[in-house]
């Protein structure tokens, strides 16, 4: 099946397992999740959701350029980690969005994002209860289609 747009409820279980283990499931719902312009995506094989992410309008000035979209809650099932599913999912997301976007990447995910075309911006910062993060950006260019 591969890449597809899904509902908020489809992304919550993987967000919970990967991004908020041991925390209440309510912590997996983000501000902006239910705004009509927000879109949720998944990589699905058979009936299994293997990777998820949410994209929302949240403009941010980065190096003098207004980046319109924020990626939030990207998570890949740990049972398929290292098999390239997260990278295939992210490439499909680039193709779908056809726009620049930014995210707050966990320190442990920075190399994954760099391998997939994102650039780290600035110094690390802490999200209380979650840990160190970096702002990262994917800049859509004429040659990146």
From TrEMBL:
<dbReference type="InterPro" id="IPR016181">
    <property type="entry name" value="Acyl_CoA_acyltransferase"/>
</dbReference>
<keyword id="KW-0808">Transferase</keyword>
<dbReference type="GO" id="GO:0016746">
    <property type="term" value="F:acyltransferase activity"/>
</dbReference>
<feature type="domain" description="N-acetyltransferase">
    <location>
        <begin position="1"/>
        <end position="141"/>
    </location>
</feature>
<dbReference type="Pfam" id="PF13508">
    <property type="entry name" value="Acetyltransf_7"/>
</dbReference>
<protein>
    <submittedName>
        <fullName>GNAT family N-acetyltransferase</fullName>
        <ecNumber>2.3.1.-</ecNumber>
    </submittedName>
</protein>
<keyword id="KW-0012">Acyltransferase</keyword>
<dbReference type="InterPro" id="IPR000182">
    <property type="entry name" value="GNAT_dom"/>
</dbReference>
């Amino acid at each position: 099946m591969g890449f597809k747009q899904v509902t908020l409820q489809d992304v919550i279980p993987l967000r919970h397992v990967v991004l908020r283990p041991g925390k209440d499931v309510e912590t997996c719902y983000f501000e902006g999740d239910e705004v009509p312009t927000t879109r949720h995506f998944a990589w699905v094989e058979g009936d299994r959701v293997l990777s998820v992410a949410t994209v929302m309008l949240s403009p941010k000035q980065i190096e003098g350029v207004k980046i319109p979209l924020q990626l939030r809650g990207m998570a890949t099932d740990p049972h398929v980690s290292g098999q390239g599913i997260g990278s295939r999912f992210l490439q499909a997301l680039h193709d779908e969005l056809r726009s620049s976007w930014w995210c707050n990447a966990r320190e442990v995910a920075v190399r994954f994002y760099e391998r997939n075309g994102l650039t780290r911006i600035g110094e690390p910062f802490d999200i209380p209860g979650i840990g160190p993060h970096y702002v990262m950006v994917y800049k859509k260019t004429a040659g990146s289609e």
